[in-house]
Specification:
The chain is mostly helical and 308 residues long. Helices cover 76% and strands 2% of the residues. The chain contains 14 helices and two strands; from the N terminus they run αααααααααααααββα. The protein has helices spanning 2-12, 15-35, 39-53, 68-90, 92-127, 133-139, 141-171, 181-198, 203-210, 214-227, 229-250, 254-257, 259-277, 295-298; strands at 282-285, 288-290. A two-stranded antiparallel sheet has the order 1-2. Helix 2 packs across helix 13 and helix 5 crosses helix 13. The chain is globular and about 60 Å long. The two termini are 24 Å apart.
Length: 308
Amino acid sequence: MTFKNSIKLLCANFDHVWKLLVYHILSIALCVGFLAIFGGHYIDCFNLASAEVDLPSVFQEGTLYGASFATALTTIVNFVIAFFVILFATNVGKGVFFCIVVFIVLPFLLNVGKIVISELAYGYMTACQKQSFTGTLLKTLKVSLPYSIIKPLYAIPFNVITLACIYGLTRVNFTGLDALFPFVFVLAIALVCAFKEIFNAGWAPAQVVYNCNIFKSYRIGIRAVFRKGLSIFSTAFVIYLLTIVLSLVLGMYALIIIVPVTSPLIHIFEMTAFFQSQGMRFYVDSQTVFSPKRLEENDRIEDIKYLL
């Protein structure tokens, strides 16, 4: 039901996809502008790392699947490692600047957009109301700035787990079983991402709905998610599974078709899951109101003291 309602809400608010896409493009362009300060150095490091692992060979056969996928993914992982080794070996300061822009500034900007989409979804779900993206961006800065500062720091352990999982899979010997590697990769990454959602899905919705500080909103959000943990985990797993599979099948075309839709879908899914776990009625479309079980019907007797 959560997946179905999320898809309906995404379709009813599909204009948000384009608005968020434009915002993401502008955010990435801003970060590229920062990186352009030392652009020549980064390009040299890129070319050296690419030549070291023969990166161009990965893209010669188009879409990556089947027996070639394990080799291609291993080459990409080796390229990333070689790039950072060369980057920091040649100039530590420029390496630190690169990491700040890519791993701090860019996530900060993307998380600001996440709060905006959550606020837009909240307005539609509660009052079937359409709002301006820019106006909502300015209105929610007081909420989005603290969230966007803390969230990337909180996400570090989860990102490390994801990267370690990808690295570990490329080090496993799949000799004779190369055709199974894509299935193992898809399942493993989808499970890790779904696990991450359990600890993140309720945070932004609670911040938007209750307008409290980031620490209290996290407590509210985590409690709400755990109330329907298995359902939220399974739905998140399906969303990430479909996203990864379609991305592998479409290859580079996924950047045009899948990626722009996935981000707003995840944000709307988190809002939908939060509303349902809190027993809050909401509009699915302009003519349909969904009424989940009330909060006291979802909680166990010992949890009644936590009612909001």
